[in-house]
Structures are given as structure tokens and as C-alpha cells.
Amino acid sequence: MVQQFALPIEILAGETQRAEDGLALSSRNGYLSPAERAEAAQLSIALKALGDAAKAANVADLPALEAQAMQALARRGWKPDYLTVRRRADLQPPQGPLAAEPLVVLGAAKLGSTRLIDNLEI
């Protein structure tokens, strides 16, 4: 958006800071009960599994892989909004061979009353 609108802003990207179990550090984590906090790492685990599956698949397989990832979280008691694989450059769905472009796995899901978000570059 900064580039598209020629905004005089410089974006300095950084790695997502994570707890030892892989959970992205966020102020939202403070809303989690101890049991929910123990479960919360499953979001980053689901993103990694989806990313690994996507790297070994072709673009036609992505909707099924994304649906499977969402179902896996739902079976654990989550209410997933989305788990999806997108192009890093513009967050659009990949069109060609998955190995040909940088991708990101994005996820948002509610655990209890807390909505957690995360992403993983692949």
C-alpha cells in the first residue's frame, strides 16, 4: 500500500518474535487462560504444517490443504477464520508453480474469546 500510494514511509521488516514453543509474541496472549496458552502454539504448528504441505503440492491442491488445516484446528476446539497460502508480494493467491515465488502462510483463529493471528514465510 505504501508503494501503491507513493506514501513517504519507510517500512523496516523484522522477524516475528516467538516464545520457545513457537507462539508469536503478542499482547493478545495475555487474554489466554493457562490451558489456552498451552494450546495456542498449535496455530504456528498448523501454519508450518500447511506451509510444508504447500511446498510439496501444486497450486490446484491449495484449497483442499487449507481446508484440512482449518478442520484440524477446529477439531482441537479453535474457531478458525482462515489459514491460507498467499504470494508475499501482494497477498494474492498463487497462480503458477508454488516453488517459483516467495509465499506466506497466514492464519487467524479464535481460541476461547481471543483471536490470534500469525504468519510464516515459506
Précis, in short:
With 122 residues, the chain is of the alpha+beta class.
Detail the topology: elements first, then pairings.
Blueprint: H1 34-40, H2 42-55, H3 62-75, E1 79-87, E2 103-111, E3 114-121
Antiparallel strand pairs: 1-2, 2-3
Task: Report what the structure shows.
The structure is a single chain. With 122 residues, the chain is α+β, with helices and mostly antiparallel strands. It has one domain (27-121): Pantoate-beta-alanine ligase, C-terminal domain (Pantoate--beta-alanine Ligase, Chain: A,domain 2). It has 3 helices and 3 strands. It has a 3-stranded antiparallel beta sheet with strand order 1-2-3. The longest helix has 14 residues, at 42-55. The two termini are 22 Å apart. The model has no long low-confidence stretch (mean pLDDT 94).
Spatial separation of the terminal alpha carbons: 22 Å
CATH superfamily: Pantoate-beta-alanine ligase, C-terminal domain
Describe the largest sheet: 3 strands, antiparallel
CATH level 3 topology: Pantoate--beta-alanine Ligase, Chain: A,domain 2
In CATH, what is the class?
Alpha Beta
Q: How many domain regions? A: 1
Would you report the number of β strands?
A: 3
Contiguous uncertain segments of 5+ residues: none
CATH architecture: 2-Layer Sandwich
Strand order of the largest sheet: 1-2-3
- What structural class results from the helix and strand content? alpha+beta
Portion in strands? 15-25%
Helix content: 25-40%
Give me the number of helical elements.
3
Write the H/E string, N to C.
Answer: HHHEEE
- Mean pLDDT, to the nearest integer, reads 94
CA radius of gyration is: 15 Å
User: Based on CA inertia axes, which overall geometry fits?
Assistant: globular
